[in-house]
Amino acid sequence: MSKTTIPTGGIADDAINLTSKVTGALPVANGGTALTSGFVNGGNTPSFLAYLTSSQTIVNNTNVHIQLNGEYFDTGGCYNNTGSTVTLNGVSAPSYSFAPNVAGKYFIGAKGRNDTSNDGSGTTIQLWKNGSVFSQVRDTLDNAESMFIGVLMDLDGTDDYVQMFQYQNSGSSTVANGTGTFGGDQTISFMFGYLIGGA
Questions:
Q1: Tens-place pLDDT, residues 159-187
Q2: Span 37-197: which CATH code?
């Protein structure tokens, strides 16, 4: 069988050295707009992952704000892991909220669980935007099943913020588990988000 080789300076070298050969702005077809944020120049910042460091009571038949006070990471410093409103990067961030200072489209996700030995007809994990439910995932409450929600949100970079809530109707209080170290067996409640593109 004959062996094919690619000479130096050919396609292989061009592909390997593409980064060094491309300079300036790339052309955009059909009068489009070049991407100026998101994956280019700074990655997916702001981004964060916050988690519950100790168990929190979820009272019956009530939307409960989850106090995600642990930060696994907070690139850009836009997550408030305290129980009071603070200003981060010029943006007012209510308690336990993500308030990015860059306008764009964000992927936001959350996971939670209501630990109980009682069943109920409904349990939800909710993502709230600016104090109102934006999206939620709902299921029957069967002992202690965890749920995940992931959505895309437009956040304006000036006053929008996101928080996590849980709800259950077992007839009595349940527990959202937390742990001091993210990734431990009891890391049940967490929320994360990152910029995916410009406004």
A1: 999 999 999 888 888 888 888 888 776 67
A2: 2.60.120.40
